[in-house]
């Protein structure tokens, strides 16, 4: 809901002369309820609160699938805490000092510093690969997200799930944590189980090699180089042979979804990926 609302506000602001726009949806990156560094005062947002005394006072209205937890015990409170509002205030102050910047976004960087970054009207966020952040990768040829077929369950450790493109759902199997490796390469870890990596089958670099989910083992076939492409996109090159890149192919899996394979780098649209930063898993510095 928040991204859709923020996008609508950005579009509306662009149509009103004299109105500037500051996007604050990323102010809590690295300090969300489920991030690794969340102990107070570092947690910027509230999440669900389970009130155990409610069951004693009023009984259980409906169990929700967690043993001993009932619906009437859960209090949803998704909003910023004091630290989060302070982060927003720092961003607003910085944006005020940049009168020539028509659009910008506020975020926390990997050093845990609030910063304001420029936006180009009508263009997506200028995201770049960062160690410790997680991303959705969208293929420019079909507008679909890089997806691990049949995955999405937290903790999934199934070897061999094929990489495909699929309409964006927000599922875990469509988001990947980047871990920096040698030579400027990155592992792309399945966000639901960071022991599982995006892998080129059998360590092959031959054209047509299927990409898949596989247990992380440090192999070069699990290390990927983000090569800049056109219009802020990236190509995902195999570190063993950077002339081969992840490509949304014309081959379809059994469910009719485009398979992602290695192919010679030709700058084709099916080889270009728009990366969208979804958050910071761990911070540096």
Describe the structure using short key phrases.
globular; Trefoil (Acidic Fibroblast Growth Factor, subunit A); mainly beta; 33% strand; 285 residues
Secondary-structure element sequence? HEEHEHEEEEEEEEEEEEEE
The count of strands amounts to 17
Which architecture of the largest domain per CATH?
Answer: Trefoil
Kindly give the count of domains. 3
Strand content: 25-35%
Describe this structure in words.
This protein is mainly beta. It folds into 3 domains: 2-37 and 80-118, no CATH class; 47-78, no CATH class; 133-280, Trefoil (Trefoil (Acidic Fibroblast Growth Factor, subunit A)), CATH 2.80.10.50. Helix content is 12%, strand content 33%. The protein has helices at residues 2-14, 53-58, 82-96, and strands at residues 21-26, 49-50, 74-75, 103-108, 114-118, 133-139, 145-148, 163-166, 176-180, 186-190, 196-200, 211-215, 224-228, 234-238, 241-252, 258-264, 273-280. The strands form 6 sheets. The protein has a 4-stranded antiparallel sheet with strand order 10-9-6-17, with no helix packed on it. The protein has a 4-stranded antiparallel sheet with strand order 13-14-15-16, with no helix packed on it. A hairpin with a 2-residue loop joins strand 14 (234-238) and strand 15 (241-252).
Question: In brief, what are we looking at here?
Answer:
The protein has 285 residues and is mainly beta. It has helices at residues 2-14, 53-58, 82-96, and strands at residues 21-26, 49-50, 74-75, 103-108, 114-118, 133-139, 145-148, 163-166, 176-180, 186-190, 196-200, 211-215, 224-228, 234-238, 241-252, 258-264, 273-280.
